Amino acid sequence: MKLEFKIRGKVIERESKCPLSGLLVRAYDKDFLFDDLLATATTDSNGSFEMLYAGRDFQELFDSKPDIYFIIMDKKGE
After folding, report:
1. Pairwise pLDDT comparison (24 vs 59), residue with the higher score
2. Selection from 6, 2, 5, 3 nearest residue 48 by Cα
């Protein structure tokens, strides 16, 4: 059985609450030795993004669910 998961989100500027477009969002699964890249997406004009990943991308011997964290970068990679 193939499991697929979806992450939806929105990136906004903290002070102004304005949406931030054109940012690269990467979702990772934190692991003991090496973190796994689950998916990447780019924010749209509303700051929204959506990404899909498969269950096999995070499931290992001791993992039943991912420990997800995000890294968000601009076009300069900052």
Report:
1. 24
2. 6
62 or 68: which leads in pLDDT: 68
More confident residue, 77 or 66: 77
Distances (CA, A) of 67 to 11, 27, 39, 46: 20, 10, 13, 26
**First vs last C-alpha separation in the chain:** 38
Map tokens 């890294």 to a residue.
71
Give the count of beta carbons closer than 10 Å to the beta carbon of residue 35.
14
Tokens 């749209």, located at residue? 44
Q: Would the pLDDT of 78 be above 80?
A: yes
- Residue 69 confidence (pLDDT): 95
Tokens of 8: 């939806």
CB 39 within 8 A of CB 56: no
User: Hey, what are 43's tokens?
Assistant: 């924010």
